[in-house]
Amino acid sequence: MEIHLNRVDYMQVGVTSQKTMRLLPAMGKKATQKVAIADHDGVLTCFGMKKGEAVPVFKTLPGPKISRLDLGGAVGTPQEKIFVCSGSEVRGFTKKGKQFLTFEANLTESINAMHVSGADLFVCASYIYNHYCDCKDQDYYLSGDKINDITCLSTEKLPHLVPVLACQDRVLRVLQGSELLYDIEVPGPPSVLELYNKDGGESGEDVLYGTADGKIGLIQIGESSAVPKWEIDNDKKKGGILCIDTYDILGDGVSDILVGRDDGTVEVFGLDSSGEPTSRFEHVLSESVTSVQGGCVGKEGYDEGIPASLSSGWVTGLTTEALKAEAGPGDEVKMSKETQSKVAALRAELEQLQVKVLQGREKYQQSSQSSTAVSAVPVFSINDKFTLCQDDASYSLTLEVQTAIDNLLLQSDVPIDLLDVDKNSAVVSFSECDSEPNGNFLLATYRCQANTTRLELKVRSIEGQYGTLQAYITPRLQPKTCQVRQYQIKPLSLHQRTHSIDQDRPMNRLSLVGQFSFAEIHSWVVFCLPEVPEKTPAGDSITFHFHNTFLGTQLEASYCKGEGHFRSDNISTISILSDVLSKEATKRKINLNISYDINDESVSHTLKMIHPKLEYQLLLAKKVQLIDALKELQVHEGNADFLIPEYRNILDESAHLLEEYKKQPAHLERLYGMITDLFIDKFKFKGQNVKTKVSSLLEILDNYDLTSLLNFFVEA
Amino acid sequence: MISSNRILTKILTVTLFVCTTLTVTGTMLVPIFTLKLNHKINPRMVTIGKFDGVHPCLTAATQAGKVFIHNPHARGQRPATHRLSQSAQDSDISLLNINQAVSCLTAGTLGPNTTGDTLLVGSQTNLLAYDVHDNADIFYREVDGANAIVLGKLGDIQSPLAIIGGNCALQGFDYEGNDQFWTVTGDNVRSLVLCDFTGDGKNELLVGSEDFDIRVFKEDELVSEMAENETVTSLCHMHGSRFGYALANGTVGVYDRTARYWRIKSKNHAMSIHAFDLNADGVVELITGWSNGKIDARSDRTGEVIFKDNFSSSVAGVVEGDYRLDGQKQLICTSIEGEVRGYLPASKELKGNLMDSSVEQDLVRELSQRRQNLLLELRNYEENHSNTVTLPQGVSDTDSGMGVIPANTQLQTALSVRPATEAQKAHIELSISTPNETIIRAVLIFAEGIFEGESHVVHPSAQNLSGCVRVPIVPPKDIPVDLHIKAFIGGKNSIQFHVFEITRQLPRFSMYDFTVDPSAAPPTGRVSFSINDRPQRVVMWLTQNFLLPEGIDSPNITFTSLRGRGLLSINMASNGQITLSTDDIDLAGDLVQSLASFLGVEDLSAEADFPGYFEELRTTLTEVDEFHSVHQKLTAAMADHSNYIRNMLVQAEDARLMGDMTTMKKRYRELYDLNRDLINEYKIRSNNHSALLARLKSVNQAIQRAGRLRGRPACVCVCVCKIHSNNVFPSVTERNAAFWVTRL
């Protein structure tokens, strides 16, 4: 069953964080619900809709940025107490806006995830989890990686509390008291957790999770182990999940799953009779959806609606109510009275503001005459994300600003490729670069079209070349300022954390022994590899697993104080690591004893791993080259019957082939580059410089054949 | 009989459009028909012609030197002879064999007594006028490239002309193939349109060319010139004197006469533009088809998008026609993969609102966004104020991340000419500096036509940060440029910077240095003319157009060209006679044009002598001659070869039929060798041809340049060049020579 929903804007507050908007339970006979939303200005706003206009119930005074909002209340009563956290403080408000609780958690870091359940309060700072009951300290846990979200299985159906942490290292950690009960591996870094049906489903054990790379899953958290129920892949490469809610919007008695993503997509998944999710609705808003809730806010009668709050602070509803476009007899489209009054009010407010702004401008101008005054424009907020896309081994950078972006300057001190993104309408211009003496390898400007608040870019890095990518963002806001954001391109930038590696592959080993501390070697690993927590792990030693998203090769890093071992089936990975690590150690004047254990078999193993990709790409390139000529022949002869089946096949599949080819620009060149690196690195470990033979290698690659390539690697 | 025929057509029309979404649903305009033609369409080579006088047929160039004609209205009536052959894939399509890569095509009324439209197909060497209905050639002419074509009436010329734009040349043919019109323009022509530019009731010809200019010709007289910053790829007439244009860098816009109304730039390329009244408000909109498959309609006044749609592949062409034969014109868009969509103008109910969203929602959203912007700006001022109060007076905290700078910081910019040194080429230096300890983190300069892209960035590395940045600029052409400078000012460790925005104008002739090396040879070329103005006016012109030091009060000045083209000296005698001495004829032309327009001189008679350039031209002309004769020789040789091949093939086939395999093999081997020879010869021929074209282009440009030495759109003035005494022409293309003489 498909549903059709229309967009209605309710209200705008300041910039919001993830999960900072909730609907209060409906009261008495009234069917409409109130909305509670908290923003970065520290303001908690509670409002209801009356005749299409937002009527505030209460509004708190500005303060420090609010990072989460949750509802709570005594068990068995309506959950209508509002809890917000800012810094390391948790405050509670009644639905009327009376503050009844101020609780200082005394954490060194600020709280970034919170869950309230009856008298129990769960808060998480980056690595720390704390449980309070009636504001008394109960349990404590230190996680191995950053905690993104927390939820707790409800006490109503279970004998005791079961908190679940979503951690950046692709693991959900299930706790019991202060101890880890067990952990669950999920396919991506989980970004949000939510109880299914708000109470954990029938068993009270069902938890929904969403990942930063756009996957959603349902998991049943059992006593001693978890059972994954289903998982939705992110085939269409939509944004990462920021919020999930369950609400029966279709009215079929089964709760539907509402999902908000960081690319502005709002989706509704319905569960079919076998419990499998199917997409029912999709709507794309202009910015990240930080919270999504199912309920009824606007009008009675149309009791389905999804208020969603966007990162820019808009609270927007998607309603089943049809928007009436009354076309009057006149030429102008007649607006409904509600809108008319809304528009009039807005215009009046605008005029007032305009006057104030003019005064402000004048004052600012005056101050520029004074020789003692200073000009300091407050920092504007940028919502940015720099992530590695697994399927095309490139980084995507998304930037979001509350107002329209005027232009963007990208600067990089490492060679990287900037790829075109269809969604991006900004006009890009590459400027001449001077690598000497200013160390620029990329200087590009994006001039944005009016009303662009969100920009998406793609960047392709080369492993072994590391440095910083800087983005200078200038919004269209007076007085004009720009802010710089930095993104590290790590030496092994195309690697991604995984849970385990295949131990049967032939592996090369790099071992380091020296007078370094655990923290030091950890910081080197952080420098080299993405997705490693910055905090030195607890314990004496640690092992991380990675895989190369482009080639599929793997890496195991295990180290402790004074000793480190890195194993990979790709000799280039080992070579890059050894270069960077020895450089880092030299910087700190630490003597390293480096030893290698090179397995010659690993090279041919890697080549064999590349082989299917290379062959596919070569074949694809060849076929694509033929398409035009074959089409011409077809036109000339009137049909394609005279062609051999292979060619006819190419013609039939031409559209698909072209699409594939377009999807992976320069894929072949990248593979060639990796093979060349492999070749050089193999002989580097033997102490030979084979750079002169690269041209003959390229010749072989041009007439590619696996055996001749393998032979060349052996013989050269 | 006739009426029954009609009915038949109607039925066919219905069957044709079954695959479509027929109604305009909701509040959005949707195509009334879509077709998949299964033939690729070459970009910009799409037209609609009523070849039988009644039924419009979509006609487009496709691969392999073919043109297809889609005629869904009259099936099964076509003979398949001569050039026309029916496509085996699709019975509605007939293919026309041109046997050359098609470069442009159009259709329309050319002859006075023809029933239907004439199809005109241009290639790099020929123009074919073809009667599709009678399946016969009307004429076939050799031309100097046909990059663009337009059909219609021009000025006072009686019969409609097919005007083609080639390599610097414009040619117009009437229905008999007679060459009625010929003139030259500055560079290779890329787009043409006919419209009443001057408002005198007669059409002028607008020409867009590769030297970024749009020129307006009133017959063969150049009346206006508009400088753009990229190759002008498309032009279309909107209404009155208003016309749309598109550039190779993704710009589209609208001009009214010489004034640009609006323009927008996209990262995609505009493939085709067309004027069509899509929202039925009585005024045409500019419809643009983009390389990413997007179609949009923009208001001719503001450029605001009123409608858009998407194809899966690049748009090939946008045309209009009554394709359903119901009396209503449709906008017809085609993609390069052969997808065709037709749109009807919006019905009354839509009220001009073609987009899928509600007006009120948009209005509220826009107002709220504005409110948000104002609130943020206000917050900026308020917090700035509170900062000013809290910070101790006089202490500038330039190292905080917020980027605090003294409020009286002002950016100073200066332009200066830098001659070449060993380390750096000659350039103009733009120096930007702050008066205090703040630093410049980066400088962005947006300017058109002087950088590779639209912007240039200077981003010093962290250790090289300072309060002063020097940007070398080398404008490739003598054009006045606005430099939009954005400088990021802050402290060394700031994460937020103040953006200073300044616009500086780079004078037109900035690449000329005031200092002169006394040993440099004086220029031999010169142009002189008389004006009735005070020397001060000339000095004023000089200071506005050159980068001069302060205190110049005499118009007698000598410059060194930083592009290595020798000296330029300007002299004004007491009788008002101005002499410009330079060896660069282009520069002389630009100077004359610029000075004449500054002084408001309409007519200017000038006397010019450029011995060096004329010598070059003379050699070029001789070369043209040589290439011509080589060309003829090669053509003869090719004809010989092809006879030989025919013989050989017959012999070989004979041998095969006789079963004499050895002879056959031998013949075929010979044939193979011959083929190789032919290919080699072809390569020589094509090299020769491109060399010839290059020479012809420079001859055409010479004519154009000589024209520019005269005053403003002057026509009566005479430019006395010594060259006319040299009678090298008769051997060259006679037409060029004839023109040369008449104009000089």
Automatic annotation (TrEMBL), chain A:
The BBSome complex is thought to function as a coat complex required for sorting of specific membrane proteins to the primary cilia. The BBSome complex is required for ciliogenesis but is dispensable for centriolar satellite function. Residues 21-320 form the BBS7 beta-propeller domain. Part of BBSome complex. InterPro entries: Bardet-Biedl_syndrome_7_prot, BBS7_GAE_dom, BBS7_hairpin, BBS7_pf_dom, Beta-prop_BBS7, Quinoprotein_ADH-like_sf. It comes from the Eukaryota. Residues 378-487 form the BBS7 GAE domain. GO terms for biological process: non-motile cilium assembly; protein transport. Keywords: Cell projection, Cilium, Cilium biogenesis/degradation, Coiled coil, Cytoplasm, Cytoskeleton, Protein transport, Transport. Residues 600-713 form the BBS7 helical hairpin domain. This is Bardet-Biedl syndrome 7 protein homolog. It comes from Myripristis murdjan (pinecone soldierfish). Residues 495-597 form the BBS7 platform domain. SUPFAM superfamilies: Quinoprotein alcohol dehydrogenase-like (SSF50998). PANTHER family: BARDET-BIEDL SYNDROME 7 PROTEIN. GO terms for cellular component: axoneme; BBSome; ciliary basal body; membrane; neuron projection. Residues 336-363 form a coiled coil. The gene is BBS7.
Automatic annotation (TrEMBL), chain B:
GO terms for cellular component: BBSome; centriolar satellite; ciliary basal body; ciliary membrane; motile cilium; neuron projection. It is found in: Cell projection, Cilium membrane; Cytoplasm, Cytoskeleton, Microtubule organizing center, Centrosome, Centriolar satellite; Cytoplasm, Cytoskeleton. Residues 424-509 form the BBS2 GAE domain. InterPro entries: Bardet-Biedl_syndrome_2_prot, BBS2_GAE_dom, BBS2_hp_dom, BBS2_Mid, BBS2_N, BBS2_pf_dom, WD40/YVTN_repeat-like_dom_sf, WD40_repeat_dom_sf. Residues 516-599 form the BBS2 platform domain. Residues 191-298 form the Ciliary BBSome complex subunit 2 middle region domain. Residues 611-708 form the BBS2 hairpin domain. PANTHER family: BARDET-BIEDL SYNDROME 2 PROTEIN. This is Bardet-Biedl syndrome 2 protein homolog. It comes from Myripristis murdjan (pinecone soldierfish). The lineage of its organism: Eukaryota, Metazoa, Chordata, Craniata, Vertebrata. The gene is BBS2.
